[in-house]
Design goal:
The chain is of the alpha/beta class. The chain contains six helices and 14 strands.
């Protein structure tokens, strides 16, 4: 039986199908054979000053990363206190225009999931969907119940598993809000609510099939603490990366990740950006060997909605 939340989101698609075609990435996304992805999460401003923090991040990106092809937001766009819409989505959609990136792909985090109808109304994305460009397939899976852990339904899991199996000849990136408990990001046994519920389902698949990169947020851990990236050999060398966080909790700097793919190269580079210092964090660069070289003809990314 399919989730009633999924039916509600798909109904929104029917009412406004133009909103779900996905924005075009434009020419800069693949400039000189390089494709750049900006990945961030956990914006969730609680007051006006925290909105300004994100606007400062957007300014850094606009000035220094004009060649970025697409943006990934791995959840918690809004704080959503008690599930009320306080205008944060409208602010977010307006603020992000200044980045100069036309193609944005988001998932719901636990805070967004407190009001899924608002998430789908403003962002026009389903609970799960895929995006392709070149020989890359990105799989987006949202939180579905608004609690601290990330709840992913069996329907969403089965869709993800099917896509992973079908796309083994392609570079696969998964995006979720929290990571699987076995990812090695943060001491999960200590912070059990900071992972995907029943994540063993995903691990069983990863042990049989290759996923190149798994991006998540939710943890709010600065890069200086560690626990933010881990490659797991027994899961076919999947690279887990925490992209968060934008919100400056306890005065810490806003951080995010930039991912670089070079045409005809089988090396992906992931860098950590300190947006307050406007520099990449030294010693945090990841060089990931892909199972196949990146192939790209300059075409815009395409969004694929779940089958009815």
């Amino acid at each position: 039986m399919r989730s009633p939340v999924l039916f509600a989101v798909l109904a929104a698609f029917i009412l406004d199908p133009a909103g779900f075609t996905g924005s075009r990435a434009g020419e800069n996304g693949g400039h000189n054979g390089r494709f750049v992805i900006w990945a961030h999460s956990d914006i969730q401003p609680r007051k006006e000053s925290e909105r300004k923090d994100y606007e400062a991040v957007i300014s850094d990106v606009a000035v220094n990363f004009s060649g970025t092809g697409i943006t990934i937001v791995a959840g918690d766009i809004v704080q959503n206190k008690k599930g009320k819409d306080d205008g944060a989505y409208e602010w977010f959609l307006e603020a992000r225009k200044a980045a100069g990136i036309s193609c944005w792909y988001e998932i719901a985090g636990n805070h967004d999931a407190r009001n899924i109808p608002a998430f789908s109304l403003y962002l026009k994305k389903p609970i799960y969907y895929s995006v392709t460009f070149g020989n890359v397939t990105m799989l987006f899976i949202s939180d579905e119940d608004g609690r601290l852990h990330t709840k992913i339904s069996d329907a969403t899991f089965r869709w993800w598993e099917k896509k992973v199996i079908e796309n083994q000849d392609r570079i696969i990136i998964t995006v979720s809000h929290a990571p699987p408990a076995q990812s090695g990001l943060v001491p999960i046994p200590t912070f059990g609510t900071m992972s995907i519920s029943d994540s063993r389902r995903f691990i069983n698949v990863l042990q049989k099939y290759r996923v190149d990169l798994w991006l998540c947020g939710h943890l709010h851990i600065p890069s200086s603490w560690g626990f933010n990236e881990n490659r797991v050999k027994y899961m076919n060398n999947v690279q887990f990366v925490n992209v968060s966080r934008i919100r400056r909790d306890r005065g810490l700097h806003s951080e995010s990740r930039f991912i670089y793919l070079e045409k005809n190269s089988n090396v992906m580079i992931v860098r950590t950006r300190d947006h307050n210092l406007k520099v990449f964090v030294p010693g945090r660069e990841i060089k990931l060997e892909l199972k196949s070289p990146f192939i790209y003809d300059g075409s815009a990314p395409e969004i694929h909605l779940p089958e009815k």
